[in-house]
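Dear colleagues,

As part of the handover before I leave the project, I'm documenting each prediction I ran so the next person doesn't have to rerun anything. This entry is a single chain, and its sequence is reproduced below.
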Amino acid sequence: MDALLFLGSGVSFKSKLPDTKSITDAIFNKKWHRHTDQAFYSGPNSTPLFDKIDITKNLQKFLSIIKEYSDSYFMKRDRSETTYEDLYYICQQIYENETNEVDNPAVQLFVDQISEKSQHLLTSKDPINRKITISSLASDSLTFT
């Protein structure tokens, strides 16, 4: 028989792993870059040429727009600020709505509002890169978070 051990989130404190707030703060306050392997890494890009086409700053701005909405929602419910986990879930809902994976009319108004506030992020500086859409911002934000 195999044993499975479930541990609560408190284990991370004693092991000095970052907590939810620290991870969320890092998403917004640290310098990040997208590597050619499509993963995101903290710190400056080792290839400055790619800085001009890196989408990470736009993802941070996109996530900030979402966080503004969700922080307002959580404050009304006496809950703390939005976490990276909340951001991931919201981006997944946006992505699924925009790709028609999930048909949820309750999400559409929210997506429309986020889309309107994110229009300035839809311009690509990369002539080779695909067109930036709300769907692609949400998808890339899922990878980033």
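The longest strand covers residues 32-34. DSSP finds six helices and two strands in the chain.

All the best with the project,
I.
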